[in-house]
């Protein structure tokens, strides 16, 4: 008797459309900043917001600890952010259901002892506060436990002073990263800036690998203009860059920017720009005074130029681009994001979670 052997089943191939669709609302398995810490105080009403396309409720408990959960009451799925912060729990305003910081339903006043009580029915997100911002771990179904995030030293080391600029822009999140990995735009778009008017309008760029990403930099020009960017992807995705400062801007040497662009949805981005200088003691005080009184308004003017440009861009415009050598940094960035997303989706697919 002949035995017919079936060929081994193969997993369906992921399409570019699936990859790009997943990327619309960000890369998972990363720490993302969601909000400045100052916007959530003890006793404040719970705050509802969207990040990475997910509805969140953010609140600070009676001990000052930030709590981040799905903004949905397990009873009737209304927003918990429209409820009351009781200090050790949220109480839904609709029917009084009480949810603890770990997502457990603590009480159902309308029917005490009902099966909903004692259930962990609300997703709770790991969170931490770093340099004045609330960071949240957005893991997929295979990575709900957060990986360690080693913050860039510019945000936590005592020899640095940093100030956070935050704004919501009506643009796709990847365009912010494209912009930051494009040093050449500073020479043109920001040519009237007090710090970015110098240097050659022509340049050749090179890439340099690091353990957690890569540098994209002008060859033969350093500390003249916006001459390089560094992409870092180490359980959090951000761009670091430096802009040279004249002595009139006070002590501290070059002015560094640590930038995160957290997806809100597929067309809005929460933009975080930490402005950093390496200063301490009296130099720190001098620099912060100069920044607040003289420099900050100029920086917002530069950011406004970026915002106006990026808000004119919509997802899908890439098919109309004709890129050249100056764009090698953003090409590599896009390839990296697509590869990371493909790996994540493939793992979910293999586990039957996709």
Describe the structure.
The two termini are 40 Å apart. The protein folds into two domains: 23-138, 3-layer Sandwich (Rieske Iron-sulfur Protein); 153-339, Alpha-Beta Complex (Naphthalene 1,2-dioxygenase Alpha Subunit, Chain A, domain 1). A hairpin with a 5-residue loop joins strand 7 and strand 8 (105-107). It contains six helices and 17 strands. Helix content is 22%, strand content 27%. The strands form four sheets. The protein has a seven-stranded antiparallel sheet. A four-stranded antiparallel sheet has the order 5-6-7-8, with no helix packed on it. The protein has a three-stranded antiparallel sheet with strand order 1-10-9, with no helix packed on it. Helix 1 (16-23) crosses helix 6 and helix 3 (173-180) packs across helix 6. It is α+β, with helices and mostly antiparallel strands. The chain has helices at residues 16-23, 153-156, 173-180, 185-189, 281-310, 328-350; strands spanning 30-36, 47-51, 54-60, 66-70, 84-85, 90-91, 98-99, 105-107, 127-130, 133-138, 161-169, 205-210, 213-218, 228-233, 237-243, 255-263, 269-277.
